What we know:
4-stranded antiparallel sheet, 2 helices, 21% helix
Amino acid sequence: MSRRSISRLLTNFLVGAGLTASIAGxxxxxxxxxxxxxxxxxxxxxxxxxxxxVIQKNFRYQVTHVPHLPDVDIAAIYNTSIxxxxxxxxxxxxxxxxxxxxxxxxxxxNRSIWYLIEYGQGFASIGDNVEFCVAGFDRWNVYNxxxxxxx
Length: 151
């Protein structure tokens, strides 16, 4: 996938998340993650406040509706980084960006968090989808033992 197509997809994500920033045509920076010849994915996508807001909202729903989970919130997500980038291909048209970080919980503890941004997979294929897993909070093993699916 070319740098231009990745930039277009990321721009669509950022605009869909309520941002007006454009990354198309911007120069590579030290925090950029290179994927293939000439392709760039900005690591700031993993640290974006809109992505974190979705995770925090859905985590609140999870701890409220899954029995035997502690009643805590995610106060902050930090130390984020890209762990894997799967560009769209002929066989898989969904571009995926895997991220990791540390979630600071409202009880003061820190937990590892892994999350996935799927471009174009929001409701009715409008917007993007974010899946996440906080270590110790996947009671029903949706993401396998200790969030292995999202690592």
